[in-house]
Design brief:
The protein is mostly helical and about 160 residues long. It has six helices and no strands. It has helices at about 5-15, 25-30, 35-40, 45-65, 85-110, 125-155.
């Protein structure tokens, strides 16, 4: 089995469609407005923060996939300038689709025997642990996004 292609497919279907859960980022974010994306709910992150947070892990893992080092901090994963307009929100979504596809293409091109090897450094675990973890993490936050979107829309009615 080509594990690289299978894992890349999991990532693509999570973001673009036809996954087992029948819920995708594209499906749930395509009609979210800037106002909805940046609306806060006491004690929760907003949708825009969650989008950028999930992208953070792909951004910092890409250098490892290209033979570089993992330079990351979980603390930094929520630190970003929020979008200030509908145009900036739409630009963030466009960036998301590009990052996901670039990341998936790189994963797909990995040799099949890499999945059990160290992800840049033994302390980070294997390639499989990191890439599959990114997918699981993204599913988790997609659930939050779906909930927040429903809450925001119910509150405005």
């Amino acid at each position: 089995m080509n594990w690289s292609a299978q894992i890349a497919k999991q990532l693509r279907t999570l973001y673009f469609g036809k996954n087992w859960t029948a819920a995708t980022y594209k499906q749930h974010l395509q009609d979210v407005t800037y106002e909805e994306a940046t609306q806060t709910m006491e004690g929760f992150n907003n949708i825009a923060m969650l989008v950028n947070h999930t992208l953070y892990y792909m951004r910092v893992q890409m250098p490892v996939l290209n033979g570089g080092a993992l330079v990351a901090s979980d603390k930094e994963s929520f630190e970003y300038p929020p979008p200030q307009s509908e145009e900036e929100w739409q630009a963030l979504l466009a960036e998301m689709w590009t990052i996901v596809e670039d990341f998936a293409a790189k994963v797909e091109s990995l040799p099949n025997d890499i999945w059990e090897t160290s992800f840049g450094d033994e302390k980070y675990g294997s390639y499989y642990r990191n890439i599959q973890g990114t997918i699981e993490h993204s599913h988790y936050h997609l659930g939050q996004i779906v909930y927040l979107k429903k809450w925001i829309r119910a509150k405005s009615n």
